[in-house]
Amino acid sequence: MAGNTFGKIFTVSTFGESHGIALGGVVDGCPPGLELTEEDLQVDLDRRKPGTSRYTTARREDDEVQILSGVFEGKTTGTSIGLLIKNKDQRSQDYSNIANRFRPGHADYTYQQKYGLRDYRGGGRSSARETAIRVAAGGIAKKYLEQVHGIKIHGFLSQLGPVAIDTVDYSIINENPFFCPDASKLEALDEYMRDLKKSGDSIGAKVSVVATNMPVGLGEPVFDRLDADIAGAMMGINAVKGVEVGDGFDVVTQKGSEHRDTLTPDGFASNHSGGVLGGISTGQDLVVHMALKPTSSISVPGETIDTEGNAIDIVTKGRHDPCVGIRAVPIAEAMLALVLMDHCLRHRAQNAAVHCTTPIIPGSAK
Amino acid sequence: MAGNTFGKIFTVSTFGESHGIALGGVVDGCPPGLELTEEDLQVDLDRRKPGTSRYTTARREDDEVQILSGVFEGKTTGTSIGLLIKNKDQRSQDYSNIANRFRPGHADYTYQQKYGLRDYRGGGRSSARETAIRVAAGGIAKKYLEQVHGIKIHGFLSQLGPVAIDTVDYSIINENPFFCPDASKLEALDEYMRDLKKSGDSIGAKVSVVATNMPVGLGEPVFDRLDADIAGAMMGINAVKGVEVGDGFDVVTQKGSEHRDTLTPDGFASNHSGGVLGGISTGQDLVVHMALKPTSSISVPGETIDTEGNAIDIVTKGRHDPCVGIRAVPIAEAMLALVLMDHCLRHRAQNAAVHCTTPIIPGSAK
Amino acid sequence: MAGNTFGKIFTVSTFGESHGIALGGVVDGCPPGLELTEEDLQVDLDRRKPGTSRYTTARREDDEVQILSGVFEGKTTGTSIGLLIKNKDQRSQDYSNIANRFRPGHADYTYQQKYGLRDYRGGGRSSARETAIRVAAGGIAKKYLEQVHGIKIHGFLSQLGPVAIDTVDYSIINENPFFCPDASKLEALDEYMRDLKKSGDSIGAKVSVVATNMPVGLGEPVFDRLDADIAGAMMGINAVKGVEVGDGFDVVTQKGSEHRDTLTPDGFASNHSGGVLGGISTGQDLVVHMALKPTSSISVPGETIDTEGNAIDIVTKGRHDPCVGIRAVPIAEAMLALVLMDHCLRHRAQNAAVHCTTPIIPGSAK
Amino acid sequence: MAGNTFGKIFTVSTFGESHGIALGGVVDGCPPGLELTEEDLQVDLDRRKPGTSRYTTARREDDEVQILSGVFEGKTTGTSIGLLIKNKDQRSQDYSNIANRFRPGHADYTYQQKYGLRDYRGGGRSSARETAIRVAAGGIAKKYLEQVHGIKIHGFLSQLGPVAIDTVDYSIINENPFFCPDASKLEALDEYMRDLKKSGDSIGAKVSVVATNMPVGLGEPVFDRLDADIAGAMMGINAVKGVEVGDGFDVVTQKGSEHRDTLTPDGFASNHSGGVLGGISTGQDLVVHMALKPTSSISVPGETIDTEGNAIDIVTKGRHDPCVGIRAVPIAEAMLALVLMDHCLRHRAQNAAVHCTTPIIPGSAK
Q1: What is the pTM for the complete model shown?
Q2: Chain A: residue whose CA lies nearest to B7
Q3: Which of A90, A128, A221, C107 would suit a FRET pair with C206, their CA atoms being 20 to 30 Å apart?
Q4: Can you tell me the distance from the alpha carbon of D347 to that of D331, in angstroms, rounded to the nearest whole number?
Q5: How much is the ipTM here?
Q6: Which of chain C's residues have a Cβ under 8 Å away from the Cβ of B115?
């Protein structure tokens, strides 16, 4: 059934296949009066775009987004915003050898089994190309969050195979092709990726997203917790296999006396929680990590079956990222922005009228 | 706004505070004709119940669930099922010292900031006591999944502080107070917990849930992916800080040639994916792990602030689990059952009519 | 699938059958800080209660509502509110003759066909008894609307069979057993009902609900229009077969020059629209009418079939309203309150932040 | 907040303003394997299109729909279907006199108050032009309903001002410009409309929609009743002010002995209920009526206010339908199709597995 809409009161409904006519979507619930242009959205689309560095796929997509409605005289009107990205690079191609085989690690087999048929061209709807519209929609949320609440979202690569970062400097993230915040690791990354490309193999990665200048109070109790919604959003990104908030899996060996963040009159003394307690934001930095599996499309030969169930050999040709984790950075930012905007509006729905909360702690430890 | 309902077409809406009159909920969307008794639900409530071992809180809750509607002559009618668990152990108590202070690591501060007021007795709605209704509702889903689809759900403790399991034997999980599937670790766990209790501290844990005999095809593309919904469900359990599907964070250092599961005429040759590809179940075992933080209520003294923002000392007295992870096992099972049942019904909504899929692979590697 | 929840961000999920253990529900999304007691809800439950006059069924239900959660120290906490009404009058009875026959005009046949089985005692879930929880939940919404926005809701009987009202005086509605706002019709109603009871037959009715002191701007464009949501809510009340907003079916023969309400600097000059334009409230009185069919349970003999498809005679015995329309008045008020409260919160979610609207017209024509 | 999505598991999310770049939408939840072409959708778009007769607006819109995704090799894939209709007739025009005034009977005033700003060109999102996408989406539902369940939907004009139909002949509905099913009224309609056009005024209408070959069992109990959802869908069509199911407002003066439809071994003996009992379809013809107000844009001079609140005179120029009711016929059909398809899928979600119902009554009275 319907599973192409994200969000509860700020919603994004998307459509479009990798090799179809266009990708698009409907963004609904954006407050009126927000200044918005196509350029606002293009920034992140360009960051996500393949072909921007030698470490991402050489496929040219262009990804020019059009706003078809919901913006009038430069401002949102409060009605739904139509987004469209035409697919330009639809090479006429012979798909016959893909059509009847299941690439290992891909959704070919599960789509075929679920639906009984599938658009086999480039993965169809299961292609990472679909995330372009998420990034465009996330751009609207990012602008709103920053303008109305001052919230900023910083995504970055925190590990690629064996190369892990030691420090985080937001200012250099967009200055290198890896979205890496640690200048001292750039050379190691470069070298690792060069060797990897030669081998025809691919590698996993860890990506982090941090929201700064967070308000306290976002998130609903019990089910629609802020951390739960974030976990769902991140695990919903192609190739993600794990999600952490704050200390994540490190808590398994932590003691209570070590983990709990002390509250002081000047704010929290630490941030093991990652900025969420009881599913509600604490006002501290919101810290999220995720693990992305290595690209399954590699030139290393493998085995699989065809649609008749016969064993066959497979070698993926064509243009593929050796590490999908890199390009996932702007996608992860977009998904976090969508979750936060939804929760900002939800919070306002319930909490504005009867009382007004002023944070008890003036500042918050980051 | 509303955040106390879980699921899309099989839904659970819950209410109730830790020290209020009762907990309860409405389970909606259960197909008619399913045999169901209160005993079916009591089994897991008893597994979750505190006071069952010396390692969980001594607080007696009883947790007797009543089915108030939706079942007639022993079978579900297709209408909504009302559930009620009365709170028996409401000790009249002096809460004045809790009322005006924020326990570190708890939701006291965030609830107060979000709502401007809070039910401070025992954490109110943010208490783990609330999960009793999730377990009861999950019991309905478990019964349905097993009877209609043959799906079985196995939850277990896979690590507690430094003690990690080496093997998994489902048959012993319910035979020990730790829900531990590795008999060789029981003594180490026992010893570790005894020392921990003496120290007044608490410890984190890793819990796993596996669904066996899974059908292929569950999960929606793009947003309502099976793994995304599972991640949201698990991160929504009190104290969970991380969620993994399949190899989880291990994929960060894996290569594509290593990670991708080969399809063979006899099924998948491995299960790195944890039973999900492209957000859709593969028919293999569904494998989920989660990290639970150590209990914040410990007798080790700490610092915090009161509701006026003044620094104060705090020592949590009373009956608390030194490891909340243990009791989370039946909760995690329940949440997985709720997700799977919702997706079974969703799958049927869209896919039954126009075609009927027979799995191409007869069996599946586990 | 799930169909027992009403509303989008202020939601009510209900359960319970006519002759089961209890009725209940979960009200979710109520802002914190609203003063609320069980007495607030009991007022309308008592108005709805059967047995209050000789024209409604003599069945004693009592309908004492309990608030089980979500209220602490006299105020809502922002968490979900559990409601419970125990069924007291469960006469042990022989249902064998009802169990295997389909009462004409009732949901017996459709429930049986839909679900394959049904709780045949007193109609089960399809009984009007279920509306008690809607009335209780509506009581919360009514209190909120009046306290926060000053909105008042007035329901009344505007026609019963051939007896139609000429004038509306809100002050007498609760002073007579018909909820009739026209004192000059009370005698005619009394006489009509007396004759009707003798004949053993039943009669239809028209009920109206008016919300006064409405804000401008409630309702979403295109699909979740205020009038659309009201129409759905009213048609969802048992026995309702028609809904009108403003002039309703009279517009079929109206000309544009006659129907359109002129705007003047002092407000609208008329209210043919019933207070809604383009799906959004105008700030005028919101005017809704609905038609309720005559009770199908009558002592006039009829024909029907049994569950085997055989023709049989049927005479409904027992305690039934000769006009269900009368008791529908508080139910219609409750449903309108639920819709309005949901839209108040929805409006706030989207519109509070970026701009703030002051009505251009100071007063509004009623 | 978000209000541009219709449906629960078969959903349509739309965007687009009257004079913007394009209208579009996302249709989600369509089962895979349905044969679908753009021509299938164009049929109803052409029926709805203005300029097809001298009685509807002369504005040329063309309304060519494009399917951008979700269909592969002529069949739906089960993923979301993107729809796009480009706006061709965007005359460069001087809107300055519309921009600062509120047309009476239009949504100008309410949109301005709700959002603080509005796209004033041709009504923006509140324009009936928006319904083009509903008609396109409804075309998908119509095809599904007919192919999979054999359900057919017939919309027609049943009254226009004083001219009411006496008989219904489905075969002539599409043969005349009024969608009138009674050949004997065509001349009267023609004459009435000619006089009306001369006067510069407009007129209301009554439109009916009937679904034949209905299955028994569609509709959920309590809140998501089939009739409730239909009432919401119809009242959500621009200009609709009243909705009836079956006998509608006639029930006000009916007696129970008269209204209740007798069940016989050969089916129902009458259809006062309009094919719905207890919110669930009976298998009889589903009969719905609605009242549409007269067009507010007329050349008869009127009074209104400008955006500063000053009184001004207004005469609407341009191309407008003297009776919007006529073109509402395909829109009403589309909305009914969307509701029925959603309920078909919902029914299947809950009811397919545990039991399978065979109707007790072989045929049904229409």
Answers
A1: 0.95
A2: A223
A3: C107
A4: 24
A5: 0.94
A6: 32-33, 77-78
